[in-house]
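User: Please run a holo structure prediction.
Assistant: Happy to. Please share the sequence and the ligand.
User: Here you go; the ligand is pyridoxal-5'-phosphate.
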Amino acid sequence: MEISTVCVHGNGQKDQTGAVSTPIYQSATFCHPAVGQSTGYDYSRLQNPTREQLENTMALLENGVDAIAFSSGMAAISNMMELFSPNDHIIVSDDIYGGTHRLFSHVSVKNQIDVDFVDTSDISEISSHIKDNTRAIFIETPTNPMMKVSDISEIARIAKINGLITIVDNTFLTPYFQRPIELGADIVVHSATKYLGGHNDTLAGILVVANMELSQKLRFISKTIGSGLSPFDSWLIQRGIKTLPIRMEKSQQNAKEIALWLYAHPKIKKVYYTGLENHPGHAICKKQASGFGAMISFEVDCVDTATKLLEKVNLILYAESLGGVETLITYPMLQTHADVPVDIREAQGINNKFLRLSVGIEALEDIISDLSQALDL
Ligand SMILES: *Cc1c(COP(=O)(O)O)cnc(C)c1O
């Protein structure tokens, strides 16, 4: 079945009422028909029918064997980190979401997991960092916020040779544009808060796995830790996914035009959008994904332009997060990446002139005229 159809219908399973919209099973516990028997549901920390519907849809969309839904993207990644033990080493993209950076560099390190932040867009960098105790490679592609692209199948190939698992945060492109498991990845991570939910109204996270061994390990961890997604939030994400294809198409269409418009603007010094042919990751992104998405980062000429732009936008909202129907503008230095040490941040280009735009599905002309008036100081 085509991906747009799977987004609308999931696995097509209905409950006994035939409800077209999966009911919200707002129940913490489930009664048993007889001793030693179960309806398949015992307690919602373990399984819940509404959450399961979303998990089935996500497993189908990413072509995995199972998916597990969590209360946020960070909850998903935190649960995943329980796969590792003290003295394990993992290689991580040097440019990643600030919260993930904070988790790895504060919490994981406290748990004695050795984390190396590496430029994973450079394959030789990865190979040279593999050690005897390396267990996994964790990448974002494109990265948040510098839009660096890593070659998923090449990384998965190197990982397999060395007995490592490949983990890909696929938040930016979603399975509509990119399916890492088909390229050899073992675990796909999502902040479903972003494009999957799509309406800036729900926090959620998903892990999709390529094999049953990982599924069993992660289900054991998730039922033990207990940060599964609530029935209502599962329903909201499931509903969001139904329109994922048309939202991705429309926001991408807008983003392509806005990237070109920014590129031509005298006050814009650099534009990072993987859909631009001069972007260093353009060719690899084109090879491994069917679209470039709708995230654009850019650098303006001076701090004054950056602050005025943030204050003068009307339609565009100055807020963190991304992937919703509303166009949002973010100041990574003060928001998403505020906890990344200044030297590391600056070296990556996340400075006080650097902004990130999550392009929504509004009319293109309205987004551009808002940017235009806000830049015209
Ligand atoms: C937002 C985000 C996360 C964290 O997800 P939450 O749902 O906010 O916890 C992880 N990875 C990426 C790429 C993100 O953009």
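Residues 27 and 370 are 46 Å apart (CA to CA).
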